[in-house]
């Protein structure tokens, strides 16, 4: 049995699936605690249960809308100002999904949903259990009733996935490369899959960001195992390395690639290392940029199951692709992706090939078959 959530002597009401309560506050923060990386999003819906337009989906690529925004801080969630919601918004639906699209909530302890009022005052707590193989869950609804609002705990898993869920509420989902400005969710590319970077949003993609994140690993007891992962970008002219950016060289010689700096243990929330590559500044002789992750101290990826990589459109702030490092197994490195010239445009390919390398230089001979 979980310990009730308390804050400054206040205790949250423990709710269960299907319970309804009338709200007496105007500002809310809904947060979700879980052992695995998750995303929290929300839909603003009219009386028919449909969005009114693009702005009514609040998620990682669009972090705010009228009366609502993704919450600040390390715990994923949304902050809602009920009085600021447009009059034709009748429902607010809060959704939680696992960042690893291949994972299932039933494989882990149940997520815990918490609703706080002004000043962080605990209002409600809900253990969202019984989700089985679902990787997405409709957590709760806020419903307008006359001039007031009520909260309803839903807790329904959705096996079809996040894209199918938002599509069912009227959000247009577009695929990689489409010019329509509709929602485009993360493309968890399988190894070997590619996506054109031409006209991803509007015009050619000019700036890509590769992000790496992982969490500190605990050994026996409370001892922290300092697993040091490193993100690197290696620039090739044909099969020859000509430049790059990594923890040792934070900016490439051409200035086109820049590394955010070395994180030695995965501490801190969100992205731990980021490499930004300005494709327009790459010298003409550069034919490909290959992104690799290596484990500096030789810890295998079996020890870093929380680790992920992500590729973003650096201008629009839109996620292009995402992958996890769990498939690395008993290896110390992975070739995660490459961006390469295809005539006058660029393409991105997911590779996901485990390798043995504790330093990017050691990865070079193992990269050559993938160029």
From TrEMBL:
Gene3D superfamilies: sav2460 like domains. Residues 34-167, 188-356 form the TerD domain. Pfam families: TerD (PF02342). It comes from the Bacteria. InterPro entries: Stress/Tellurium_Resist, TerD. This is TerD domain-containing protein.
């Amino acid at each position: 049995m979980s310990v009730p959530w308390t804050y400054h002597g206040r205790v949250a009401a423990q709710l269960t699936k299907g319970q309804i309560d009338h709200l007496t506050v105007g500002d809310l923060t809904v947060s979700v605690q879980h052992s695995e990386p998750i995303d929290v999003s929300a839909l603003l819906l009219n009386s028919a249960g449909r969005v009114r337009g693009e702005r009514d989906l609040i998620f990682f690529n669009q972090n705010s809308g009228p009366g609502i925004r993704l919450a600040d801080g390390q715990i994923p969630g949304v902050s809602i100002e009920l009085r600021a919601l447009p009059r034709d918004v009748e429902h607010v639906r809060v959704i939680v999904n696992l960042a690893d699209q291949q994972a299932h909530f039933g494989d882990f302890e149940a997520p815990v949903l918490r609703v706080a009022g002004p000043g962080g005052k605990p209002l409600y707590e809900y253990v969202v259990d019984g989700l089985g193989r679902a990787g997405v869950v409709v957590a709760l609804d806020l419903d307008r009733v006359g001039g007031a609002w009520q909260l309803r705990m839903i807790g329904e898993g959705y096996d079809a996935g996040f894209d199918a869920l938002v599509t069912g509420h009227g959000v247009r989902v577009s695929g990689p490369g489409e010019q329509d400005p509709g929602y485009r969710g993360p493309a968890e590319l399988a190894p070997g899959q590619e996506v054109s970077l031409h006209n991803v949003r509007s015009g050619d993609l000019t700036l890509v960001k590769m992000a790496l994140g992982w969490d500190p690993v605990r050994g026996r007891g409370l001892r922290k195992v300092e697993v040091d992962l490193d993100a690197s970008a290696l620039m090739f002219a044909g099969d020859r390395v000509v430049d790059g950016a990594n923890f040792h060289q934070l900016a490439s010689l051409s200035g086109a690639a820049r590394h955010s700096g070395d994180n030695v243990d995965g501490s801190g929330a969100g992205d731990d290392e980021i490499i930004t590559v300005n494709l327009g500044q790459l010298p003409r002789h550069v034919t490909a940029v290959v992104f690799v992750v290596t484990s500096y101290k030789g810890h295998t990826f079996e020890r870093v199951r929380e680790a992920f990589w992500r590729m973003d459109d650096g201008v629009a702030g839109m996620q292009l692709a995402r992958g996890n490092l769990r498939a690395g197994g008993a290896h110390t490195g992975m070739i995660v992706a490459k961006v390469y010239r295809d005539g006058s445009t660029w393409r991105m390919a997911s590779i996901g090939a485990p390798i043995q390398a504790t330093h990017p230089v050691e990865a070079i001979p193992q990269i050559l078959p993938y160029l």
